[in-house]
Amino acid sequence: MTSQLFAICFRAARPADLGRFWSGVLGREAADGPDGDVALLPPDPGAFRIRFLPGLEPRTGRNRGHFDLTSASPEEQRRTVARALELGGKHLDVGQLPEEGHVVLADPEGNEFCVIEAGNAFLADTGLIGALACDGTREVGCFWSGALRWPLVWDQDEETAIQSPKGGTKITWGGPPVAPHTGTSRPFFELAVPADADWQAEVDRLVSLGATRTDAGEGRGAGSSEGGGGAWMRDPDGNEFSVRRTR
After folding, report:
1. Are 7-32+58-173 and 51-55+183-245 the same fold in CATH?
2. Domain map of the chain by residue range?
3. Which CATH number fits domain 51-55+183-245: 1.10.3230, 3.40.50, 1.10.3470, 3.30.720?
4. Cα–Cα distance between 33 and 223 in angstroms, integer?
5. Reduced to 3 states, what is the DSSP secondary structure of residue 38?
6. Which of 16, 67, 83, 239 lies 20 to 30 Å (CA to CA) from residue 26?
7. Using CA atoms in the order 171, 175, 180, 183, what is the torsion angle rounded to 10 degrees?
């Protein structure tokens, strides 16, 4: 049985503060975890959580992934931006052009995100979190398509995107040039293997797709997902992710 995307995790200096910020922006319920972590619960049982975990390593450069939030109208885009600023976000200049319709912001710990203008056809019907937009190669997009068994919904000019067969948030990779991987990734994927599945067989399957085993995340605020034990791995672009057993 394929592992599931249990959570998109962010290492944070102050997980509780980031949990409050994103709970307010997204309108998701927040739940405190046992190790100082905070989880934003999904709007439906099949969706992923967002987890903020204690992690004290200094930030180095931009994140390799950021959320694209959708808007149904210009008024809704303005409301989302205003709400984020009221909660402690700030505007961010990443070289965007004045004529571009999206607004680039950062949360209180500097994690980038965009509020996309209304009428974006690619993100239609995805929900408030339209995409997790990642820096990455075509190879890593194909890897994650196979790892999660989510179909490729975009594969053109080295750019890829996947989406759950149930719909919802897309995960995209922008293709080359890809910045070198340095330090520990602030955002990372947390996969969960169902309790009735063969956990080791699933880890072996991920290795066969191009992942590698590593202990890179141990002791760096990884937390756990509903049960003990697991493995730290890297995808073909070197991004850490965890694979956890669930009860």
Report:
1. no
2. 7-32+58-173, 51-55+183-245
3. 3.30.720
4. 9
5. strand
6. 239
7. 0
Residues ≥6 apart with Cβ < 8 Å to 14: 108, 109
- CB 70, CB 7: distance < 8 Å: no
Rounded Cα distance between 152 and 211, Å, is 18
Name which of 157, 149, 186, 211 is nearest 67 in CA terms: 186
User: Which of 52, 115, 116 is CA-nearest to residue 85?
Assistant: 115
Tokens of 101: 């319709």
231 with 238: CB under 8 angstroms?
Answer: no
Q: Does the structural domain 7-32+58-173 have CATH classification 3.30.1380?
A: no
What six digits make up the tokens of 142?
């194909």
pTM equals: 0.91
Helix axes 199-209, 138-148, angle to 10 degrees: 160
* Residues found in the chain: 247
Q: How far apart are CA 67 and CA 238, in angstroms?
A: 20
What own/partner pairs with CB < 8 Å and gap ≥ 24 does 153-158 have? 154/122
Beta pairing partners, 230: 244
**Which band of pLDDT confidence, cut at 50, 70 and 90, is reported for residue 247?**
low
Report the DSSP beta bridge partners of residue 152.
162
